[in-house]
Task: inverse folding
């Protein structure tokens, strides 16, 4: 069909085929003349996507049409048939899959660190899937490899790494794993060839007691053992206590072990706390320990002049994890890890597979990234970030970050205005995590003692069940330390407005006042 056809011509073509009679064999690439049915099918898929997007941004729709696993398995056909199904059924499957899916872009979804749906980033994801290439060599992904090169350098410049190297990873946990692997290689290069025999001492890692579990996981995966990943006590705001870190480092040395890795968290998962980087960097320098900053959650603050101070000293780290799919709202997944020193990724991970990474190619093979990662094949996670960042510019991204924090301040003040209904666990949160209990009517004039706290912890999951069954709201909950279950509200969707915060508070009271 000519590209110059009118919209009416387009509709005639789309309506001319009975789509229920089509099969996958009628589409590209099996049918070399499959342009028309392929286009018709994909346009129908886009209609389904657009309908879902519209509903996700319609405040009158439900966040979720919740069913138990047993119920959903009766409602939805998950089976794989022996014979091909027609395209009409496949389109119905697409509609039904989204019908029962949580609308994470909904302005009343406050459940996860990753919320919202940036439309430009979505366009990047669609085009990425269409290109369907691997990110291990420049040969097969020239534009995307260079795109990644420039964006990662931009991020290192923002961090304060004047040289260095970076890579995109499948999630923040893997980014943190890369940091541990590279730290081990830098300090004990023989480990790559000799394994555990290269170590004369037990290596010990340190992390905040409120940090993400990925540091403990990396300790297990790398062979150090979870017993040698030491949790450092935190203060009342959830930040690692530097004096406690140094005490534990000294204890490790006195046992004859080797402290080698400090994980400093910039934005803890639950409370949103920012460990103080400079005091931890001083300890790392004093004892020759690798300092890693896990800014998977809080890294977006680096884009705001108002909030960058939360990561003061980040340039002193040797490595940094930063997830654009969190505060920056890039579509999942998009996680980066950055190193101050260049060449370490290649040196630590290179396996010289000459069937993939030939050194006699006709271009600069330093742009082939596959040999500096542990996973070989790598998904293209850069296009959706690049095109989104270009659409916003640095100024737009600063406004994006500031908007999220302004809404957080608004909600905190609203909670403080209603002390009979809500109890703030962290009165002045550092990130967009707001930790609180909802107080039902029967507990509003009860002293806030241990018994009341335990009762509020019991009520929290009951109220979560009510909000999911009603489908009007989603907020996550969890315990931390000795504190029983409480709500952790996240504002990382740029579409959220003050009216959504007002709705949240009133809806919690409507659903939970009689608990």
Result:
């Amino acid at each position: 069909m000519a590209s110059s056809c009118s919209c009416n011509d387009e509709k005639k073509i789309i309506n001319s085929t009975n789509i229920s009679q089509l099969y996958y064999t009628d589409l590209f690439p099996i049918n070399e003349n499959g342009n028309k049915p392929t286009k018709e099918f994909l346009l129908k898929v886009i209609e389904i996507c657009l309908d879902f997007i519209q509903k996700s941004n319609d405040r009158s729709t439900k966040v979720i049409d919740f069913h138990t696993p047993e119920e959903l398995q009766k409602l939805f056909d998950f089976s794989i048939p022996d014979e091909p199904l027609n395209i009409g059924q496949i389109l119905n499957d697409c509609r039904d899959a989204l019908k029962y899916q949580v609308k994470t872009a909904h302005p009343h979804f406050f459940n996860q660190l990753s919320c919202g749906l940036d439309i430009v980033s979505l366009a990047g994801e669609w085009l990425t899937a269409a290109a369907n290439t691997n990110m291990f060599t420049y040969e097969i992904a020239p534009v995307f490899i260079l795109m990644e090169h420039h964006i990662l350098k931009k991020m290192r410049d923002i961090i304060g790494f004047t040289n260095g190297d970076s890579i995109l990873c499948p999630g923040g946990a893997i980014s943190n794993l890369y940091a541990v692997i590279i730290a081990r290689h830098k300090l004990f290069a023989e480990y790559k060839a000799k394994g555990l025999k290269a170590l004369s001492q037990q290596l010990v890692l340190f992390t905040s007691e409120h940090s993400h579990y990925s540091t403990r996981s990396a300790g297990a995966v790398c062979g150090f053992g979870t017993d040698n990943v030491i949790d450092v006590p935190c203060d009342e705001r959830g930040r690692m206590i530097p004096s406690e870190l140094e005490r534990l480092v000294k204890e490790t040395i006195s046992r004859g072990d080797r402290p080698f890795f400090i994980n400093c968290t910039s934005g803890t998962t639950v409370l949103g706390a920012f460990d103080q980087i400079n005091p931890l960097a001083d300890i790392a320098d004093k004892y020759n320990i690798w300092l890693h900053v896990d800014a998977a959650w809080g890294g977006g603050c680096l884009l705001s002049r108002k909030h960058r101070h939360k990561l003061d000293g980040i340039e002193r780290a040797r490595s940094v994890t930063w997830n654009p799919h969190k505060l920056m709202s890039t579509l999942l997944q998009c996680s980066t890890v950055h190193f101050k020193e260049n060449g370490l990724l290649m040196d630590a991970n290179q396996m010289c597979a000459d069937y993939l990474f030939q050194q006699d190619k006709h271009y600069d093979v330093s742009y082939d990234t596959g040999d500096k990662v542990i996973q070989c094949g790598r998904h293209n996670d850069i296009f959706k970030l690049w095109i989104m960042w270009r659409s916003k510019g640095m100024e737009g991204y600063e406004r994006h970050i500031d908007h999220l924090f302004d809404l957080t301040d608004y909600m905190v003040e609203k909670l403080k205005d209603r002390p009979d209904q809500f109890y703030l666990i962290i009165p002045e949160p550092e990130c967009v995590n707001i930790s609180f209990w909802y107080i039902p009517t029967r507990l509003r004039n009860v002293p806030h003692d241990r018994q009341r706290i335990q009762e509020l912890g019991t009520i929290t999951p009951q109220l979560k069940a009510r909000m999911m069954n009603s489908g009007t709201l989603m907020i996550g909950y969890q315990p931390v330390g000795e504190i029983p279950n409480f709500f952790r509200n996240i504002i990382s969707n740029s579409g959220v407005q003050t009216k959504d915060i007002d709705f949240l508070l009133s809806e919690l009271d409507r659903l939970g006042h009689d608990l």
